[in-house]
Amino acid sequence: MPENCAVILAAGEGKRMRSSKAKVLQEVLFKPMLDWVIDSVKAAGIENICVVTGHLREQVESHLGPDIAAVVQEKRLGTGHAVMQAADWLRNYAGGNCLVLCGDAPLFSAATIRASGEVHCNNRLSATVITAFTSNPSGYGRIIRDGSGLIREIVEERDADEATRAVGEVNGGAYWFDVDLLLPALSSLKNENSQGEYYLTDVPGFFAKSGRKVGAYVAPFEEISGANDRWQLCRLNDIARLNVIRKHMNAGVSIPFTDGVVIGPDAEISPDAVILPGTEIKGKCRIGEGSVIGPNSLVCDSEIGAGCTFNSSQIYSSALGDGVTVGPFVHIRPGTRLMDGVHVGDFVEIKNSSVGEGTKLPHLSYIGDSDVGSGVNCGCGTVTANYDGKNKSRTSIGDGSFIGCHTCLVAPVSLGENAFTAAGSVVTKDVPDGALAIGRGKLEIKENWTPPKDRG
Ligand code: UD1
Ligand code: CA
Residue 1: is its pLDDT beyond 70? Predict the structure, then answer.
């Protein structure tokens, strides 16, 4: 049995987005629409994928992984013409079936792709169109069925008469084709329509006319929705946002209010985690059991262990162990690792650093390019001076050390285990295990001081 393959159309200009970014790279829940489509196709078990690029092709091609083939459509002459550009690639799958999808309709589920493929194969159909019913079909091609329920043709809205426009079943823009039948049909397409384009939607009608069976697989309308402008993109975000939230709720995540909660499609969240209002979770994230995230937080490409609290803070490309408490108003920048039980309080920034178990950074600190041991207490206002204007240098603080308030650690510098620094010290030399570093102006007390303005 020859393998299945998929062609994704992504050459269109997307004028109505008014953007310098390719239309298929516009994001739904922080993820480019094209990636949604590719991930659904892969999740449905189809590995052989070819993307047709054209407008802003470098942008789209540089975005594709090495496992995805790309062909160029130099001139946008229609969806049928776009698939034709992949003809050579499609010949590798002779004898098999090809799924064609649009890169601007991101919500097709893997389940729909799989189920429609089964209908297509089991009924030996020449083509199977994924359709949907809607009360507002405007903008979509209309599905015309024959008396037996098979598809007779697809009529584009611009080419439809009034009676056809009233049809509530629309073309989802996704199709299964028998590759051996598709290839000759593409070369026989004509552009005799209102747009002067070679329509892929003419292929099912062409098959039906030659006596072949064309089937329909009806999907929920929400799945076939696409975005041609930013308002539609916003509508897709609304649909996808609630879908993702519902999925997590069904898996035991607590989201007591959905206000401002936006979770990307690639987040993994364990049961009994709580996501509070105003929280965005973007990219590839993992959140452990019972952790409370939010309110008003941003978690981006990061891992948060179990039993953590993360309040009104932001974290990027970093990892927290279990039982870590963060916030409010903490900024954790890329490359940071906080081990179990670390406490980070208000107004703290940490960058590219590791912080050992149980260490406390309770207030107003900057820890950059540092390796902080376990059981360390950093007093209020601890700052690592990691940048001399040219180079970034590291600071290391041994286990059990106590950093006095307002210490400035001038990197490169290293403190041993159980080291101390006196409040207000500027530490420019290494401090051995168990030693105290004091470096500050000597305090003078002037008795019976008369301020200058009161002097005679
Ligand atoms: C298309 C269908 C319509 C269907 C709708 C579903 C045709 C003629 N019409 O209309 O029946 O209801 O999708 O969303 O197919 N593209 C290219 N090259 C081109 C033209 C388009 O790659 O020359 C790509 C676009 O980037 C887009 C997709 O094909 O990803 C669909 O094109 P678009 O112009 O958006 O078609 P619709 O008018 O939405
Ligand atoms: Ca479209």
Answer: no
Nearest to 241 by CA among 29, 43, 435: 29
Looking from the CA of residue 102, the nearest atom of ligand 1 is 30
81 included as an active-site residue: no
Give the helix ranges, DSSP H, for 217-329: 221-224, 230-250
> pLDDT digit string (tens) for 276-333?
999 999 999 999 999 999 999 999 999 999 999 999 999 999 999 999 999 999 999 9
What share of the chain has pLDDT > 70, as a percent?
100
CB atoms within 10 A of CB 162: 6
- The residue whose CB lies within 8 Å of the most ligand 1 atoms, and thus the one to mutate among 17, 79, 170, 192, is 79
Number of the ligand 1 atom closest to the C-alpha atom of 75: 23
Q: Is the pLDDT of residue 205 over 90?
A: yes
The two tokens of residue 130 are: 């994924």
Contact 110, 122 (CB under 8 A): no
Contacting residues for 327 by C-beta, under 8 A, at least 6 apart:
297, 309, 310, 311, 312, 313, 344, 345, 346
DSSP 379: P
With a threshold of 0.90, does the pTM exceed it? yes
State the closest ligand 1 atom to the C-alpha of 78, by its place in the atom list counted from 1. 23
Chain position carrying tokens 């994928």: 49
Per-residue pLDDT tens over the stretch 82-137: 999 999 999 999 999 999 999 999 999 999 999 999 999 999 999 999 999 999 99
Closest CA to 40 of 176, 300, 281, 223: 223
Distance separating alpha carbons of residues 79 and 12, to the nearest angstrom: 9
pLDDT of residue 456 exceeding 90, the answer is no
Pocket of ligand 1 (CB under 6 A): 9-12, 52, 54, 73, 76-79, 81-82, 102-105, 140-141, 154, 156, 170-171, 173, 199-201, 226, 228
Residue 104, by phi and psi: left (phi above 0), alpha (psi -120 to 50) or beta? alpha
Burial of 359 (0-12, 13-18, 19+ CB in 10 A): buried
